[in-house]
Every structure is written in structure tokens, then in C-alpha cells.
């Protein structure tokens, strides 16, 4: 979506985020938890992904998420607005929408398998992802909300640090669905 309409992506993700930071500052919010993104890593090849080693963003969306991190950092230093950014990696879980151009791969493939449709795998299927169950993402948000001291004004990866290739994922899903 951001490749087709970078201006709207900028308006929503950067201007919207800045408005939230200003509101947090004016309201005296104790700490501000926000959704960062694993897309910030861009083309950096290193694994596992480490919070302070990022590459060049690969989309306007990724740029906006990185700018959000920069703004949060500046608001922490300039205005005392405490924040925690969470870089989510491929979150999945119950009731996730399998339809649409931006649907996550797990619900999309589960729906296709249930309907006995062919799966589309981009490339050779050896690309790996770090899939994070929604309960883990919820726990990260709760921990971020109660963070104190040096844990504030940081950005954290929300992942399980386990690589799963798309081919492996297909086999895992087939086994779970007995397909």
C-alpha cells in the first residue's frame, strides 16, 4: 500500500504519530507504548535481528516506522515523554483475517488449505520468517506498559528468535490441518 500511496502513508504514520506524541506530552502521560515495525530492518542481512543494527528501509512504510522511532527518541530527550517501541515480527493468531492483499501468510495459507486451493509461495520458499503468536505480542505490550527506568525510551523486538522457512511453514500447517 505504501508503495502505491506514500503520501497517505506519511500523513497517517508520521503526522498521526507526531500528534499522538504531542497529546501524550500535553496530557502528562507516564509512558507511551507504540507499534514500531520489523520493517525498519530493511535490507540488513544480519540474523538474528538486533535492535541497534538496521539497514536501508525497503518501502515508504518502513521509512515512516523508523521516523516514528526517531520522534519518540527526541520527545524523550527534549520533553521527557517516556516511551517504548515494539518492533513486531509476523504476528499471528486466532480470528486473523485471511483475505485481502495484505493478509498475513499464516491465515491466508490456512484458509487456502481448508478450501483445497493452491498455495502461492513467492520464490523458492527458503525465505525465513520469525513468527510470533499473538499471546506473546500481548505479553510484550503489557511488559512495555509497566516498564520503568532504563527499560524506557527503548525499542524492542517482539519475536521468538526462531527462523521458519516458508517451505517449513507449509509442512507445519499441513500437519496441523492434516492436509
TrEMBL record:
Q: What is this protein called?
A: LPS biosynthesis protein WbpP
Entry's Pfam families?
Epimerase
Say which domain of life the source belongs to. Bacteria
Q: Which organism is it from?
A: Enterococcus faecium
Domain NAD-dependent epimerase/dehydratase: start-end pairs: 2-159
Task: Supply the SUPFAM superfamilies for this chain.
Answer: NAD(P)-binding Rossmann-fold domains
Under InterPro entries, the record lists:
Epimerase_deHydtase, Lipid_A_modif_metabolic_enz, NAD(P)-bd_dom_sf
